[in-house]
Specification:
The complex is a heterodimer of chains A (68) and B (759). Helices cover 25% and strands 32% of the residues of chain A. Chain A is α+β, with helices and mostly antiparallel strands and 68 residues long. Chain A has one domain (1-68): Roll (Ubiquitin-like (UB roll)). A 3-stranded antiparallel β-sheet of chain A has the order 2-3-4, with no helix packed on it. Chain B has 6 domains: 18-98 and 264-275 and 288-298, Fumarate Reductase Iron-sulfur Protein, Chain B, domain 2 (Orthogonal Bundle), CATH 1.10.1060.10; 110-249, FAD/NAD(P)-binding domain; 308-378, no CATH class; 388-516, no CATH class; 529-640, Rossmann fold (3-Layer(aba) Sandwich), CATH 3.40.50; 669-749. Chain B has 34 helices and 20 strands. The longest helix of chain B is centred in the C-terminal third of the chain and has 20 residues, at 642-661. The chains are: A alpha+beta (68), B alpha/beta (759). Strand 2 of chain A pairs antiparallel with strand 20 (752-754) of chain B, so a sheet runs across the interface.
């Protein structure tokens, strides 16, 4: 599964003081894991999941996994 | 679910049963679909449908003796549908070419039909289609037998020849002027003797189910078995004989599964309550014109049951009816690998039991869905998100933050224990305090108080483990209070205690108030009409319905009953946790209920009141009538949000403890709590997303303590996330000049972020 976070929100990591960069991040639910392109702090690993992604494709994927 | 239980449940739903006309028709013409096609003006589809059952639709349409008509439900409202005339109209109107009849590959068996009347010709038609070589022997010079006598002007010889031409087309051989001896046809593997009305009884005895005679391979039937000629029974005879002969030639049982043949009693129920009378249009001398036929077909009631679907938005929303839902549910529970498509169906039911009340067979889909949820829990297949929020709310209501159990002031135990229920405490905590004070007055102070949840959400979610835990905890406290009699304000609590702790004595608050003659703070200034919404969990409590109405009337209000009330009341959408599993349907359920009357609603369940209020309905709780000075403004009181409900429970416990025991609850966390503000529009979004102020507080606390957060350099706002239980919450917030935070947005997901993966 590819959840492309096309969101260009200018979020910076507060702790490290650097902008987030595109990265592959694993997300998992009910025993299934998927790589997703997200924005992430290359130093500490904090990520950004946009609202739109959480409420649409992630929510749909959660439902599919719950009904599997 | 066991197969046998599945079938037992499925059988209770009669929606699939044939309507009275089709059941009564000896060959079961699908009259309902026929009239449906004609009413839409589609005569070709109607004729195509007729040909599925009738070999010669024009002949039958012209002379059918219509045993169906006396069973037509329309007979009670304007007269039975003119079914044969409609058949005839579509036979003459439909602009369709002669049908292509599919004949199965030839079989190495020959059948003789002795007698060329309707019965013999139907058998010939049916058997030839199955691939048998068929020869019809007719003593007269033409086929048709009695139809030429009864047809009169409606059925010309040309018309008969035209219809019977199909026999030749499919390869039936016809020997006219041939008087065959049924006992001496050695070239044939089976013989059907259908000699018509004049045939006599030389073949008897004939088995009435199979038409087999004592002689091997000889079958007999038709008008010889009856006193009067019936065209449609002749067709049915031919069909029955054809089935038997086919079975005989294939060497399978002649008698198995034949109960469905011939005229039957319909088990379909059709509610005639709202049917307006309508009479048949006048018919032109040669039968219905196109327009007349459409008009007549439109009178057909399209009989069906759907009693439950008509009153339940949930059953309607899934687009089918209980028989199908039961099968889907069973299939869903049986899936080993694959998508469980009916999870939403199972979890969306309010379990309110209205379907069972209106069903002619008493089928309770609530109990089907409740059982299914328990099976899903047992299979570990319940979607984790389905009831999570409601169950967490239940645990919170029973946590130290909001639960309480105290004896009557100054005593160790009590004779009565007031149990207002978690949602009354959440919705109108001040009413809990006032009611408790009133009860202490009424019962000379010997009343204790217990705040908490009865376990209904666990019951609805099918979580027997959590339910047992709640009830066990309750029982310990209850015994500690000296096993007092419970005074219950919430009908759902009442249902749970009666069902699972029958040994606990309970009485409804409303019965107590009725008997004590409690007086309202303010009587209505002018006539105030109230429509009573009985909560669904009080459905079977007639005594309670009465108490409430007596109180309302005594308080000076005028009652106008809703169409569905008392035993047939509807659910507000909170029951069964529908609200959490399917918010869309839940909103439609509320919307449908609040549109039933323009009058203010009055109910005695906090959730019903709050949910109706949440969609703009003026609605009162019975305690509003008792305690509020301005009842009119109470009826438009907003529904408190999920966070507010929790906060109300917490504050209620604090106030009561302080007032009655002098104890002041300490809250260490309180001093360190970061203040934050949520604007009304953001709050509305949080409510919809089931995000609590407490969730937000924890996300911010975590972010501010650890520094793990995102900042937007352009706007200065902060975004932080934190996983609480199974849910990750995201909160976007900004600092305000006063050092507090203002919440801009929040959202959540259940997928877990596995950090530390290098790109």
């Amino acid at each position: 599964m590819t959840l492309d976070s096309a969101n260009k929100a200018p979020w910076h990591c507060a702790a490290c003081g650097i902008p987030l960069e595109k990265a592959k991040v694993q997300i998992a639910y009910l025993g299934s894991a998927f790589p997703v392109d997200l924005l992430r702090c290359s130093r500490c690993g904090i990520v950004f999941i946009p609202e739109e992604l959480a409420l649409t494709r992630m929510a749909e994927a959660e439902k599919i996994l719950e009904d599997k | 679910m066991e197969q046998e239980k599945l079938r037992r449940l499925e059988e209770k739903c009669i929606q699939d049963c044939a309507p009275p006309c089709t059941a009564a028709c000896p060959v079961h013409v699908d009259v309902r679909s026929l009239t449906g096609h004609i009413a839409r003006g589609d005569f070709s589809a109607a004729l195509k449908l007729l040909r599925k059952t009738l070999p010669f639709p024009t002949i039958i349409g012209s002379i059918c003796d219509q045993p169906c008509r006396s069973h037509c439900n329309r007979s009670l409202a304007g007269g039975s549908i003119e079914i044969a005339a409609l058949e005839r109209a579509c036979a003459f109107t439909a602009d369709t070419p002669a049908p292509k009849i599919l004949v199965l590959p030839a079989r190495d068996k020959r059948v003789a039909i002795v007698g060329g009347g309707l019965g013999g010709l139907t058998a010939a038609f049916d058997l030839r289609k199955k691939g048998y070589a068929v020869t019809v022997f007719e003593a007269a010079g033409s086929l048709g037998g009695s139809i030429r006598k009864v047809g009169g002007e409606r059925l010309t010889p040309e018309c008969i020849e035209g219809e019977l031409a199909v026999l030749e087309a499919i390869g039936v051989e016809v020997e006219l002027h041939t008087k065959a001896d049924v006992f001496n046809l050695p070239d044939f593997d089976a013989v059907f003797a259908a000699p018509g009305a004049a045939g006599g009884s030389q073949y008897l005895p004939v088995d009435p189910i199979t038409y087999a005679t004592a002689r091997e391979g000889l079958f007999a039937g038709g008008s010889l078995l009856r006193d009067a000629y019936s065209p449609i029974l002749s067709v049915a005879d031919g069909r029955r004989a054809a089935i038997s002969i086919d079975r005989y030639l294939q060497n399978v049982s002649l008698t198995a599964s034949r109960a469905g043949e011939g005229s039957l009693q319909s088990c379909l129920y059709t509610n005639m309550g709202s049917v307006k009378p309508a009479i048949a249009p006048p018919r032109s001398p040669n039968g219905f014109t196109i327009q007349e036929a459409v008009q007549e077909a439109d009178r057909c009631l399209q009989c069906e049951c759907l009693e439950c679907v008509k009153v339940c938005r949930y059953l309607e929303a899934f687009g089918s009816y209980p028989k199908k839902y039961i099968r889907e549910t069973y299939n869903n529970l049986s899936i080993v690998m694959g998508v469980r498509q009916s999870n939403a169906l199972i979890n969306s039911c309010s379990l309110c039991g209205l379907c069972a009340e209106v069903c002619p067979k008493g089928l309770d889909m609530g109990s089907v869905m409740s059982d299914a949820r328990r099976i899903m829990i047992g299979q570990k297949r319940m979607p984790p998100s389905a009831h999570d929020f409601a169950l967490r709310d239940m645990l919170f209501a029973n946590s130290d933050a909001s639960a309480l159990c105290i004896p009557a002031p100054g005593k160790d135990s009590c004779e009565y224990l007031f149990f207002p229920g978690c949602q009354l405490s959440a919705s109108a905590p001040e009413h809990v305090e006032k009611t408790y004070a009133l009860l202490r007055d009424t019962f000379s102070a010997d009343v204790g108080l217990m705040l908490g949840c009865c376990g209904a959400p666990a019951d609805w979610a099918g979580r027997d483990d959590l339910l047992k835990q709640v009830l066990d905890d309750f029982s310990v406290q209850h015994r500690r209070m000296g096993s007092p009699r419970l005074i219950l304000a919430c009908p759902s609590c009442s249902r749970v205690f009666r069902r699972y702790l029958p040994e606990v004595e309970t009485v409804s608050l409303w019965e107590v108030l009725e008997k004590s003659g409690a007086a309202p703070v303010a009587a209505p200034a002018r006539e105030h009409v109230l429509s009573i919404h009985d909560p669904c969990s009080a459905r079977n409590d007639g005594r309670l319905h009465e108490s409430v109405r007596i109180i309302v009337t005594n308080f000076g209000y005028t009652i106008k009953e809703l169409p569905l009330s008392r035993q047939k009341t509807t659910c507000c959408s909170y029951g069964g946790l529908m609200w959490f599993a399917n918010a869309k349907v839940a909103r439609e359920v509320i919307d449908r209920r609040i549109r039933e009357s323009g009058d203010d609603y009055l109910t005695y369940c906090s959730m019903c009141r709050d949910l109706f209020a949440s969609q703009g309905k003026r609605c009162l709780h019975l305690l509003d009538l008792l305690f509020e000075n301005d009842v009119s403004s109470s009826s438009s009181r907003a529904c408190p949000g999920w966070s507010q409900r929790r906060e109300n429970r917490v504050q209620l416990k604090r106030r009561i403890l302080t007032k009655l025991t002098g104890e002041v609850m300490t809250d260490d966390a309180c001093e360190h709590q970061q203040e934050f503000f949520i604007a009304a529009d953001v709050q509305a979004v949080l409510e919809q997303r089931f995000i609590l102020a407490e969730d937000i507080r924890q996300v911010i606390a975590q972010a501010e303590q650890t520094g793990r957060k995102l900042v937007n350099p352009e706007t200065g706002s902060t975004l932080a996330y934190h996983k609480l239980g199974c849910v990750t919450y995201w909160v976007e917030y900004s600092s305000t000049p006063g050092g507090a935070f203002s919440i801009n947005n929040a959202y959540s997901h259940r997928m877990e972020i596995i950090e530390g993966v290098k790109s």
